[in-house]
Automatic annotation (TrEMBL):
The keyword Nucleotide-binding applies. Residues 1-142 form the AIG1-type G domain. It comes from Microthlaspi erraticum. The keyword Glycoprotein does not apply. Pfam families: AIG1 (PF04548). Residues 181-226, 252-279 form a coiled coil. This is AIG1-type G domain-containing protein. Belongs to the TRAFAC class TrmE-Era-EngA-EngB-Septin-like GTPase superfamily. AIG1/Toc34/Toc159-like paraseptin GTPase family. IAN subfamily.
Length: 286
């Protein structure tokens, strides 16, 4: 596991120990002076693995270094336009974001306004979700905390048995270290286990998608072949039809030529008949 992920796990244990009744909101802080780093991506990934995808319903994104945008003459929207990673995060958490300035001499009214924005979002998240977020990890840490407090009481009872304050302080410190180490180890194991499960699911999904794609490609080739065969058949039929139409047109033209010739011959014969009839009448009169 990377050092950044281990640090994230350690901080999560510490925060959960402080939020015994559940999580009201999760503030995810990014600096506008840097693009989303691999460490930050790993931290977000670890957060989702440990708490589940539902944790995004409690997330509020805080962007620091507002003064950087002012110096560059950019707006937050322009800055985010070039960052797909940030846009995906904001879409997931319903665009809950607060912009914080880092100028030492910023007006108190501006600082108060920014803090109030966060509190408003926390209230919105609480109202929307209805209850603080808790999962199996939260319950496990609560159980560890309860057991630890019980051991602390036992140590304090040892004072009656003649133990010095120094002895008890050392014992409590050892207990603290042991508890933190145990919780961290359990969380690291949980992350590694879920990472393995996630990778296996992704590999299975990838294999299924690859198999489905190959099947689609196979069907596409078959369809293309059938289409090619059909196209060839259609081309042959079309060629035959065109040839038939050509011959029919030739016959029609020949027929029309014959008819026109017959009409001309008939007209010529009629004219000759009328001429002969006229001459015959003249002969009779004479």
């Amino acid at each position: 596991m990377s050092p950044s992920t281990e640090f994230t796990c350690r901080e999560i244990v510490r925060c959960l120990s402080l939020s015994k009744d559940g999580i009201d909101a999760v503030l995810v802080v990014f600096s506008l002076r840097n693009r989303l780093t691999e460490e930050e991506k790993s931290a977000l990934f670890a957060l989702k693995i440990l708490f589940g995808s539902e944790i995004v319903d409690y997330m509020i994104v805080v962007f620091t270094n507002e003064d950087f945008l002012e110096d560059e003459g950019d707006t937050l929207e322009e800055y985010l336009e070039d960052s797909t990673d940030f846009k995906d995060i904001l879409v997931a958490c319903n665009d809950r974001k607060v912009l914080f300035g880092n100028r030492p001499k910023a007006p108190e009214s501006q600082k108060a306004k920014q803090v109030q924005e966060i509190l408003n979002y926390v209230e919105e998240v609480s109202r929307k979700n209805g209850k603080p977020y808790m999962n199996d990890l939260s319950h496990e840490i609560q159980e560890h905390e309860t057991a630890f407090q019980e051991k602390q009481r036992e140590v304090l009872e040892m004072k009656k048995g003649g133990f010095t304050e120094q002895d008890m302080s050392r014992m409590i410190e050892n207990m603290n270290n042991s508890r933190d180490a145990q919780l961290l180890n359990e969380m690291v194991e949980r992350v590694e286990r879920k990472l393995k499960e996630t990778v296996e699911k992704l590999e299975q999904q990838l294999n299924e998608e690859r198999a489905a794609r190959l099947e689609l490609e196979k069907k596409a080739i078959q369809v293309e072949k059938r289409s090619s065969d059909v196209a060839k058949k259609l081309n042959k039929e079309q060629a035959a039809r065109l040839e038939s139409e050509k011959k029919a047109n030739e016959v029609k033209k020949h027929t029309n030529d014959v008819i026109n010739k017959l009409k001309k011959d008939l007209s010529r014969a009629e004219n000759m008949t009328r001429a002969l009839q006229g001459k015959a009448k003249q002969c009779i009169i004479m």
